[in-house]
Amino acid sequence: MTKKLDLALYALSAVFALVTALTSTLLPHRAWGAVAAWGYLTAALLVYLVQRRDLLAWATWGAVALLPLVIQSVQRAGGRTDRAQEEVLVVEHMGESLLHSGTPYLSRTEIAAIPLDERLLGYRPYQPGMSLFGVPRALAGDHWFTDARIWFAIMTLVTLGAAVTLVRSLPTPSAVRPTRSPFKLLRSTAPVSQAPAPEASGPVAPVSPALVRAIQAATVLPVTALTLATGGDDIPVLALCLLALALAATGRPGWSGLAVGAAAACKLFALPVVAVLVVHAVATGTWRRLLPGALGLPLLALLPPLLVDADALIENVLRFPLGHGLVTSPARSPFPGYLISQSLPGGRYIAVGLLVSAAAVIGFLLLRRPPRTAYSAALFCGYGLLTAILLMPTTRFGYLLYPVALLLFAPVLSKDTGSSAPRHDTALYRH
């Protein structure tokens, strides 16, 4: 069954890439599809020939994400202006502004001075940490290896590789069981220990089917591979969130706080993961070790822009995302929140009200039944982000990569040890 699922994944992804290459109105996407289609097709042909499914997934990632990324970076350095999405330019401009002015943001006055058809690129709606990916180009000039996407990919490879290595050190559950709802899981009132897993002895255990599926979600799914090759800014943030959960699962709350704090220092999308891990740390008594990194890093990243030009920071990270900038965001994927905001009288306020109500319900459940395992924390993060993406008045289809990867990563975070109740123990689900 697992081989059949792999075959379906790679074959359907090849079709998606081919359709993208032939029909997309975005030139970087078409260029990605023209290369990735061959990578997915090759992976589909090798499914029954390669025994190590995880190695095939990593190799496919190289063919459908890293190779198109490098090709587009080289072509862009050679003069092609249609080989990167706008967010790549924005991140690189952030790095340049950081070096020259001490803040990655332009003020409202500076943005207003930009010609109207280019004004959108004047906004930098990311957290200050994202500007670090643009520093290489600001320092060394226009080369393929200074493209921000190259550094997104390097960060992703390192953090995702570390996350996979960590979860492989967890003891293998005694049996494969279906993923349970976080709301059933959280009926437990007794904390579950997150003690470090003992060192494995003997040969390394084979990679579980659940972990292979998690790797595929974070690397070779078209929404993930396409994003990294053409834009990329979400992928290292996602990888850092997965690493933070893996570190929490293996009893390293201090390092977990640093990982999720680094993610939040780059993008606001990581803040729900910060919130869930903070509640998890309070529930398990590890908050003193997690909080310095989880909250300290984002706050530390905000300090220089606040001191240089606080209003520029507010204009970029608050006013613009909330629709009060000089131009509006082009994010208009047809999810319920966007459709409601566009089709009903006062629709934007209705969509915002639904979003706030959903956040309140999730927050209540989070506090009423706090996650005591990294597994349940990952489920809370995945379902919470999925709800937010569906109800936000302005959002992008590509943001779905966050909940998909988090929900598929959750099963590999559970473990059966002497210090944690096994998931098949019904005592875990008693009132």
UniProtKB/TrEMBL annotation:
Predominant location category: membrane
Record membrane topology: Multi-pass membrane protein
Pfam family, one: GT87
One annotated Gene Ontology cellular component of this protein: plasma membrane
Annotated GO MF terms: hexosyltransferase activity
Ranges that cross the membrane: 31-50, 55-74, 150-170, 235-252, 258-283, 290-308, 349-367, 374-391, 397-414
UniProt entry keywords in alphabetical sequence: Cell membrane, Membrane, Transferase, Transmembrane, Transmembrane helix
Subcellular location: Cell membrane
Family: Belongs to the glycosyltransferase 87 family.
Descriptive protein name: Uncharacterized protein DUF2029
